[in-house]
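Q: Hi! First time doing this. I have a protein sequence and I read that you can turn it into a structure. Is that right? Here it is:
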Amino acid sequence: MTDDILTKVDRMSMAHSLEVRSPFLDHTLVEFMAKVPRHEKFTLFDRKRLLKNVARRYLPEEIVNRPKKGFSIPLGEWLRGPLRPWLEEVLLSSVARKRDLFCYGGLRNMIDDHVMMRRDYSQQLWALLMLESWFLKNEKSL
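A: Yes, that's right. Below is the predicted 3D structure, encoded as structure tokens:
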């Protein structure tokens, strides 16, 4: 974790003047938890048993048992808004059309459907955008 997640959290929090702590990495807590039997920490169907039992002392039940929520960027919104000109410029360019990797009509339909919110193609469009951007960056060396 020290060379990955903690480094990223540290850099991003410092960049935005935020103070961030990782309380579960406190050495005294880690040493204590190493002594607690496994069956008291979690079970097959309750992966955070001990943590939830402690949390119930301080938090309402609906918070303790709520499902996990991911944290993601609003990619779909960005591709409809500020990134749309770049998306179309790169994927629908004459260079991309000459490369002939994508079906131009299908790609145009995907972009239109995404922009008109008929379907969310954000992940697919982002992947294609990154692929074409990679080609543009590296085509001289190919």
